[in-house]
Amino acid sequence: VDQLELLFMLKPVLATASLLLATLLASSAWAASTVHVSLNDVGTDAALAGDMGMGMSADMSKAIMSVTADATSVPAGEVTFEVTNASKSMVHEMLVVKVTDLATQLPYDAATDRIDEDKAGSLGEVSELDAGGTGSLTLTLEPGTYLLFCNLRGHYMAGMWTSITVN
Fold it and tell me: Which residues of 84-107 are buried (b: 16+ CB within 10 A; e: fewer)?
């Protein structure tokens, strides 16, 4: 069998293998995930509501700020957060931290009205985005629960956080 005949004999096998590989890479088990995140507010920070951080008993329906994500869970591996600041006037940011329990409060510094990012274990952030701005952050995440939040002064306590589960 010469090389040309061998190539023709292997062509269907190679085509099937290529299709199988493409299918595997496109499946959720192999493909990177993208989460679209929106940073929202009512347009003012003059009267920031307080005590709406994770694990607090405040009525979240009264929150004047929020973080929303288009997915509540994603597979473990590479996750890209595509972040949009939907505010008309305020600057926002988005940080990611892994948490063990949604009832346990993050390390909060009342003097700065912010979460201590080092103590909380920040994995990365989309830094300050002007109103209408966008940014992205790609992380490789292990299974667990992660908090997405804005850590500008007072924003976290005004309800600007959400969680996502990585399976």
Answer: bbbbeebbbbbbbbebeeeeeebe
Contact between residue 66 and residue 160 where contact means Cβ atoms under 8 Å apart: yes
**Strand runs (DSSP E) across 24-70, as ranges?**
33-41, 65-69
In whole angstroms, how far apart are CA 25 and each of 22, 100, 117, 118, 120?
Answer: 5, 30, 35, 35, 34
* C-alpha–C-alpha distance, residues 167 and 164, integer Å: 10
pTM score, whole prediction: 0.78
Cβ(151)–Cβ(112) below 8 Å: no
- Please give the pLDDT value at position 14: 57
CA atoms 10, 11, 13, 18: torsion sign? positive
| Contact criterion met (CB below 8 Å) for 97 and 121 | yes
Q: Whose CA is closest to 165, among 146, 137, 141?
A: 146
Please give the span between the terminal C-alpha atoms of the chain, in angstroms, as a whole number: 50
User: What is the tens place of the pLDDT at every residue in 13-66?
Assistant: 656 655 555 555 555 455 689 999 999 998 665 455 566 666 666 677 778 899
